[in-house]
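can u pls check wat happens w/ flavin-adenine dinucleotide
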Amino acid sequence: MLTRSALLYLARQEKLKDFAARFAVFKKITARFIAGETIDEAVAAIQELNKRGCSASFDHLNESVSSIAETEAEVREYLDVLAQIDDSGINSNVSIKLTQFGLEIDPELTYGNARKVVEDAARRKNFVRIDMEGSNVTQITIDIFKRLRSEFGLNDVGIVLQSYLYRTEADARDLLKIPARIRLCKGAYDEPPEVAYADKKDVDANYVRVMKLLLASGVYHGIATHDPKMIDATIDFAAQQGIAKEAFEFQMLFGIRRDLQEQLAREGYNMRVYVPYGKHWYPYFMRRLAERPANVWFVLKNLWK
Ligand SMILES: Cc1cc2nc3c(=O)[nH]c(=O)nc-3n(C[C@H](O)[C@H](O)[C@H](O)COP(=O)(O)OP(=O)(O)OC[C@H]3O[C@@H](n4cnc5c(N)ncnc54)[C@H](O)[C@@H]3O)c2cc1C
């Protein structure tokens, strides 16, 4: 059986991305996790989510972009997305990755690109979430976020922290002083034991610890997980502390635990679904496979058919 590390290794292989994209069958398989290739398809998916009581966050799939022209195309794509959110009236914000805006080329270029999107979002009273990527870019991602946050408001731009990293509790305490809106997730990359907890129990314990810090801060944060244990811990802590349901939101990924998404929305919790779309689906898709061995069987079964 392919291990999590092996799948995450495959996720980083650019050549396989082109190979997989050639097979039409992958389009059908990826539809479970990816809303389509175009903004229109993502808008349609978000309209459905909104009808089910969930808000959304657009994610234009692309990462580790290596040409300046491509980073500029990513900025244009996001400006288009923000315009379409307003035009269609859907309830959605946007999520960006800094390697999509040039982090592997030049941090200053990245900052300038991200700034254009945050500025437009702020003007439209929308919100930009900066996703967190591998630990090699954690610090620079936080640095660029802080720079943007010093220029824009709490409700214009936010960041993500990953509970598998040892540093995360300290980062959360530091960012809360600004303050900042944080999405807490477990973390999706292959990290060495020097920087990240290897044992799931420790990742989960850190998740609960940081979740409590976030909720107690009084700032509106995103609790991003499909894990019922993390969700129950959040609901219990909020109830004990008298924290209102409207004071935070749960977040899940498109196509994962739709039942739980709808249940939480029905129970009156704010529920946001992260909606990836675009042609560069390969690394995102592989990370979803790595999270759950059953997904690999789902792919193999469909390839066989
Ligand atoms: C809204 C959102 C945004 C995210 N943003 C980032 C980010 O910026 N950076 C980052 O590193 N990671 C991000 N992630 C991914 C995250 O770090 C985890 O890898 C992912 O959410 C799985 O962790 P979990 O909390 O669901 O718990 P797990 O313990 O992994 O899973 C709990 C249960 O959820 C279900 N489940 C989880 N994953 C899958 C899957 N792929 N397919 C089917 N069922 C599944 C299963 O039932 C599983 O038993 C994000 C996740 C969400 C929900």
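The mean pLDDT is 94.
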